[in-house]
Amino acid sequence: MRKSFSPLTQQIQRWLLGYRIKTGFSIEKVYITGGTAGINNIENFLSEKIEAPVEHLKINSLETQN
Q1: Which domain covers residue 17, as residue numbers?
Q2: What is the DSSP letter of 1?
């Protein structure tokens, strides 16, 4: 899993660093969605790698207005 997700975790780490530098604030939690979010233990893996809490945000349905 580490090798497969290395580009993703590096990209998230860079984004978090850029956000912290630009705003002076740290992200409190990262939410993941979609198919990848359903991978076993992905929340713990990502949380360990990016050093921030990660939670699977389950979206049952989306409503749109036209």
Answers
A1: 2-56
A2: -
| 61 lies in some domain | no
d(C-alpha 58, C-alpha 36), whole Å: 12
Report the distance separating Cα 30 and Cα 64, nearest Å.
24
How many domains does the chain fold into?
1
**CATH code for the domain of 9:** 3.30.420.40
State phi, psi for 55 to the nearest 5 degrees.
Answer: -135, 140
Q: Which residue has the tokens 């990848």?
A: 36
Q: What is the pLDDT of residues 10-42, one digit of tens each?
A: 999 999 999 999 999 999 999 999 888 999 999
